[in-house]
Amino acid sequence: MGPHPYGSGGRGMELAKAALDLPGQTSPTPGRGLSAISRWQIVMAVELFDLLIIFAAGMGSFQLGATHPSLYSVDDALPVLLVAVASFLSFFAGHLYDIDHLLDEARNCKSTILRWTLIFAVLAAAASLARQPFLLSRLWFGGFFVIGGALLVAERCACAVLLRKWVRGGNIFKSIVVAGVNELTEKLVARFEGGQAGIRVAGVFDAALGGPAGPPRGIMRGLPILGGVEELLAFTRLNNPDLVVLTMPVDEAGNLKDVIRRLRQLPLNIRIVPGEIALAQTPSIRLSRRELPGVQLITVANRPISRSGLLVKEVIDRCAATVALTMLAPVFLVIAIAIALSSPGPVFLRQSRVGYNGREFRNFKFRTMHHEFTGSYTPTVKGDARVFRLGRWLRKSNIDELPQLINVLLGDMSLVGPRPHMVGQKLQDEMFFEEVDDYLARHRVKPGITGWAQVNGSRGPANALEQIQRQVEHDIYYIENWSIWLDLVILIKTLFFGFFGEKAF
Fold it and tell me: Pick from 301, 322, 355: which residue ends a domain?
């Protein structure tokens, strides 16, 4: 069996924690500059300003043509809130809150105006179809459209100017990690020395080293080589860089494939520099639409969910879990009593599962097996004698999964995502990740109570290689096509079609 897929921690974590304080790692100005999380905070600030601008423009437009100020009512606020929420979702779906997009005011203003106009066109069409053309005041409607649109455009222009100033001052940057120690890496690092074009090299790793590398092995243009693949995994898990760039020669296909396979378990943007010809262009003086200005990159994997998307998903998960647990409390009590009367032992089963970023967590379920068998890792089969009678019904109906709402509330799981597997789960004495190439990529998002695989028929225990492969294919499709709307579709299909089935036992 090969190295553990999640990295060895230890020395790698020590290097990861210290790396940003090493010589040569400072930003172009005396200050440390804005970290990746601060980039995310900038995006969140723009999103908040958008909502405030839209709400202020909408409510203020009610005063147009009024002879004296009047009090607002709930009926006044509802259409404004509708426009604000619709605008946020539309801008978010169009990636208008990405830093690269915010830096390009011409492109962002054009997209903003188009989406803003479309929202008002839909609003006007809805009022017309409802045969209530005067439901919305024309003066309010026109004022809201013009004032709100103008303020949004002005905000975008001011934001772009401010962000470019921060880029030139070295206060905002993209952090990249480079895997590969060779001449190409040296030229790439030299290209962005001094924070050129807002790019900062946060670490260099020797991807040819499979095991723990020990102390840093040499210096490359002032940057220490922080170790091998194990340290690379630990560093990226802890520091969450904006980009991981592989400069390994393409003729090292076997090693390159293994490094990519192990990196794909993490929610990273992974790219390959195909050779020196990729550095032929001169970089721009500012961040451009291209991820690394002046560098041609081959995309290997993208971070599946943006930080803004993660926040939206997290808020929905926590709120829904809170409401569901409150409503289901009487059901939980009845089931707990029934389990206690059916089989001696605890009501809940807590097993170690692999979750987001390869981290382990304790998974809650209603116990369905006799207590003496709960530690077994052997997959369940139909008519399994270890499962007591009530347990069979709980498993077949998937009601035994409901306590995982607690995991959602704790932040270990999501309502929708790949189903979490047990730690060390094997198929014919081989680990799942050794049998299926893309298996580790499932851990780029939080595991879910239900998922795309489950609503497409991949339910029940994974007893065959073909079944695992099919489940992984569905999981990867979900990860690479994630959206709030896809989550909603999966939840609806689960509610109406996903509770009972022949494959659940």
Answer: 301
- Residue 68 and residue 192 in one domain: no
HSE (side-chain half, CA atoms, 13 Å) at 378: 9
Q: For residue 242, what is the domain's CATH number? A: 3.40.50.720
Domain stop point among 168, 201, 234 = 168
Nearest CA among 498, 472, 297, 477 for reference residue 415: 498
Judgement on whether residues 255 and 145 belong to the same structural domain of the protein: no
Q: Are 197 and 293 in contact (CB under 8 A)?
A: yes
* SS3 at position 221: coil
Contacts of 340 (CB under 8 A, 6+ apart): 347
d(CA 295, CA 171): 22
**What kind and span of H or E run contains 77?**
helix 74-93
CB 284 within 8 A of CB 293: yes
Geometric angle at alpha carbon 250, from 245 and 255, rounded to 5°: 80
For 175, list phi and psi in degrees, rounded to 5: -95, 130
First to last CA, the chain: 31
Alpha-carbon span 436 to 417, nearest angstrom? 19
* Burial grade of 133 (CB within 10 A; 0-12, 13-18, 19 or more): exposed
Q: What is the pLDDT along the chain (505 residues), one digit of tens a residue?
A: 445 555 544 544 454 454 444 434 433 332 333 444 467 778 888 989 999 999 999 888 887 755 455 555 666 678 888 899 899 888 988 888 887 788 888 889 999 999 999 999 988 888 777 665 545 677 888 899 999 999 999 999 999 998 888 877 767 778 889 998 888 888 888 888 766 567 888 889 987 765 444 445 677 777 888 888 888 888 888 888 889 999 887 666 667 888 888 888 888 889 998 888 877 665 554 444 467 777 888 888 888 887 778 888 998 999 999 999 999 999 999 999 999 998 888 899 888 898 888 888 999 999 888 877 766 666 666 767 788 888 888 888 888 889 999 999 999 999 999 998 887 666 655 666 666 777 888 888 999 999 998 888 776 566 667 778 888 899 999 998 988 889 999 999 888 776 554 555 4
